[in-house]
Amino acid sequence: MCGIIGFTGYLDVKNVLLEGLEALEYRGYDSAGIAFFEQDGIKTIKTTGKVTNLCDKVEGTSINSTCGIGHTRWAKHGGVSYTNSHPHTFGNVTLIHNGIIENYHELETALAHQGKYPVSQTDTEIAAMLIDSLYDGDAIETIKKAIKQLEGAYAFCILFADQPDVIYCLRNGSPLVACKSKEGSVIASDMVALIKYSKEYFVLPELHIAKLTKDNIVVSNLEGAIIKPQMLFVKWDMTAARKGGYAHFMLKEIHEQPSSLRSTIMPRIRNGSLPDLTADGIPNEIFHGINRVLITACGTAMHAGLVGRVLLEKLLRIPVTVEIASEFRYQDPIMDESTLVITISQSGETADTLAALRLSNEKHAKTLSIVNVKGSSIARESNYVLYTHAGPEIAVASTKAYTAQLSCIYLLALQFALAKNAITEPECASFVSQLQSVTTAVENTLSLEKAIDEISSHLKETEDLFFIGRGLDYALSCEGSIKLKEISYIHSEAYAAGELKHGTLSLITEGVPVIALATQTNVYSKMISNIREVRARGAMVILVTNGEIAVDSSIYDYHIALPELDDLFAPFTTAVVLQLLAYYTTIHRGYNVDQPRNLAKSVTVE
Known about the structure:
CATH topology of the largest domain: Glutamine Phosphoribosylpyrophosphate, subunit 1, domain 1
Strand order of the largest sheet: 3-2-4-1-10-9-11-15
Mean pLDDT: 92
Number of helices: 17
Number of domains: 3
């Protein structure tokens, strides 16, 4: 959600902060600001709107500083306004924050009794007021005292007016990563803001305090012990986080899917025919004694789980359930040592998914996470981790991360099935061969881009749209619907096609678009019947099939024939078509593809 950048060193801090905030724009935000040390104290410049607005405001301003902090705010407490934007200053303390202080009202009331009142509506200013009220000249001890009173999730970067060129940082739940280079010390909410300075970085451990100076970063725990953080290395460089000639990050990331699938699948194939996850630290032994699988995730990652349920149950013949992570821990879920809980998250910091993981660990279930970010909270707290090798995903709408998640689920399902002797090695080798062919099929699907652009142009005036499908196609309908609605702002819903007569048909009127997915042979004839039902009521039908299939042309307006795959692998090519459909529909409607309103890339609060 909110973007954080902090720097102290030997460079012009203005440029470092503004470039860092530009790199973090994909996280979603509605205001931006920076604060920095100058000879006569801490100065703050902030504004509502985009980072470009902040750049315009900074331009022409005389700034002579090498230490400061910057922030992009996604409004949670208080509306979008100059006053509510970060950084916030109270007394000696200037602070930026990602997260939510849950007991801010109680703290505000207590501070009012001391005659201290906020000027904003934010929980962040309350945190600054609390820290200032406790400050006695010892920053670290003050922060420790504040921690005892703060409840909720937070990542702080703090400047104290009497400690020039020093930044203090703390996290509890919300992410912070840091690196040291010859230019200075940098901290941020995401490594994309660090990569310019170093490929080696570390994740600040939770409830640890980092003190950043020009030449050093010192990390200590709450007992005062200095700790040496685990260093991580990122293989990609800044070019991977740029558009590379594409009009938008989303389009670039759609086209990167053949590469990300190869990177995720190929290193995990042994002798060209069998899955092998031992290099990921996932031995066959973890599957022994498992009689139930529970998948939990949010949004697009949860839709990957819906595909996973079909695949795992087909191969393993054990029950698999998929739970929305935000509901999971409030349902008192049943699990024990014989349950494998699979959590899925692109960022590895999704707050609800992290909470579900922690509950699963408490219940002694085996936990395995599929994530894209090394060193993320979910990765560190899982028993086992399977990393997608998608590289940085900048657009808010997830594309390559989703198909990489699918490929990890397929590999995991195959190894699980082999370990339980649910399939033979020759059967597994056949599955692996088909999984490897997915990359070429996705490349061929991308060649349909021009046709999909044309079809999308007929949706630009649409206000309501429906996806229908059965089995795996229903899981893909859910993903296609969320992809379309989140960036095009079209009201879109996904339905299991067999449920049409149970209410949904009342919404199908003349000209209403229905995207009908019919890639599964075992329910194909049923889908055609469902399509006839909506067609009879005047729907504009976009039909998607697995391969060139002879279909009565009277039942559709547009037909997209995917490169033919075994039905079980059709979700990969279907996903790409639905991504392109959402992308070009949004382009025709004239909206910002990469940064849809009200949404953030990494959802780090409940």
